[in-house]
Amino acid sequence: MNRIWLTFFALIISLLVSVPASYAQGAAKTGPDPATIRDAELEKDSLHNLQVARNYFKLKKAYVASLKRCEEIIAGNPNFANIDEVLFIAGKSARLLAEGRGKQKPELYVTFDGTSKKGLTPDEFRNGARSYLTQLINEHPQSSFRREAEAELQAVGGPVKPEGSKQ
Fold this sequence. Notes:
Layout: H1 2-23, H2 40-60, H3 63-76, H4 83-98, E1 110-113, E2 116-119, H5 122-139, H6 146-155
Antiparallel strand pairs: 1-2
Helix pairs in contact: 2-3, 2-4, 3-4, 4-5, 4-6, 5-6
């Protein structure tokens, strides 16, 4: 009888010791960080838009169309796997439009302010280029486009300074 009680108490003590150890491991994780989750369909659509933007940029010299496609990707899928290339093409397209280069006239790029259409001036294109290229350099320092982006950034007047900066 003493053996049964001794075994029973040993079992109870071992359970009491092991329960806190299992709680010390923490709660189960709910999965990957939501900021890094990529929707397969959205990635596929963004990749198609990037390929079209690349085609417009390199082959057709249609910088307005290229810039529009890139802006669509930036607005719709900021976590896109190739966002660094998108930012580079957008920045370089905006710079070339500021210089009036390409087969499309810069006046074809319009934005809508309420019910009225508005075109951008060369300075606005230049500021857009600076913004895209600065974002590329700051947010994607390991990008293969970094060196080219730095060269392009010098061509448009250097990086955008953060607000409140006195430099």
